[in-house]
Amino acid sequence: MDKQLTEIKRGERAAEVLSNELYKESIEKVRDGIIKSMSQSALGDAETHNRLVIALQLLAQIEKQLTDVMTTGKLAAMSTTDKRKLFG
Known about the structure:
Elements: H1 3-19, H2 21-40, H3 46-87
Helix pairs in contact: 1-3, 2-3
C-alpha cells in the first residue's frame, strides 16, 4: 500500500475516533476529573499538582496526535485529488 493511501486511511480512522461520542465523553470526563483533583489538592502539595499537570498534558498530547494524523490524512487526500485533476 502506498504511503499516501496509508496516511489517508489513518486520517479517516483518526477522524472517526475524534468524532466518536464515547471518545469525546471519555476525554471530557478524564479532563474534568484531573482539573477537579487539581482544584482539591492542597496548595503545598507540589508533587500531586505536578503529576496532575503531567496527566493533563498527556491527555492533550493524545488528542493532538489524533488531530495531527487526521490532518495529515486530509492533506494527503487533497494532494491525491489535486494530482488527479492535473493528470486525470
